Amino acid sequence: MVSLKFLIIVDTTSLLFLFPCNIFIFMVNILDWKKKRMLQISDVIITGISVSNLVFGGMRLLRCFSIIYNITSTIIVIFGFNLMSVSCNIWFSTWLCVYFCLKIVKIHNSFYIYLQRTFHKMLPWLLVLSVVESLLLSFYVAVNSSKREFFNGQLYSPTLNVSTSIQSAEVSFSLYLMFSLVALVLFASSCFTITYTLCRHIKVLKNNEQGFQSSSTEAHIRATIIVVSLFVLCTMLFSNVTIAATKLLADKIRHFIIVLNYVCGVLSYVGLIKGNSKLHKTLRKIIHRLTFSRPST
């Protein structure tokens, strides 16, 4: 079983970075919406990602308190919202990647062209369905898992039919993994397409001895940085949840994967902020003001 003290240390350390980054992303987009009364589609999805990450961080904080004060009544809620935030993160990141792919990559196919023209209309419904699916499946897993020691050895043992409880937990978690895996496959294919077309575009520019300073090339590079960063993060989240729940590896390896997950999370936020021009410019302004500001005399 993963050490409770280790989980508290990792959770607390990660929250010191997780909360400021996501609050920064959320506030920048909310203030921009308040100013312009509209947001770009990519900014809406990125805001959704930041909200799901804030929920994830909040559940980590509650887990620390429940471990320290030995509170068992909140385990199902923490587990459910934890899984829900991971699922929402994966699906929101997938739709962001698909949006960038449809916007940047040109493919002469009738169905692809149809998606390019209509995806922005379908996106609100896709986001709502992603939240609903994540909510239902996550709490379905949490309720079934509460009947046995299923996740990190921290849920209470069953008092009823053990085999039925185990079977229900395995079925519900399999459904959760299946839907998340579908999102990751769609994410991976769109991410590969964006990255491949960028490499091909750069090769053409090099052969023609042209620079990379055009607005379209810069936007393509920024989109690639964002989707690759998010793909790494979502893959690590998916792997972390899978390994933790199924107990496939020894504790030392699981400790390493948990730490690697949070390191990848830090790097992904760096890539996300750097890849979004609005977030990058705002952060640079804040750093500049904090660095060069002088107290009035």
TrEMBL record:
Q: What is its main location?
A: membrane
Keyword set for this entry?
G-protein coupled receptor, Membrane, Receptor, Sensory transduction, Taste, Transducer, Transmembrane, Transmembrane helix
Q: What topology in the membrane does the UniProt record assign?
A: Multi-pass membrane protein
Q: Which Pfam families match?
A: TAS2R (PF05296)
- What's the superkingdom here? Eukaryota
Compartments, record wording: Membrane
Protein family per UniProt = Belongs to the G-protein coupled receptor T2R family.
Q: Any idea what this protein is called?
A: Taste receptor type 2
Organism this protein belongs to: Engystomops pustulosus (Tungara frog)
Ranked from the top, the taxonomy reads: Eukaryota, Metazoa, Chordata, Craniata, Vertebrata
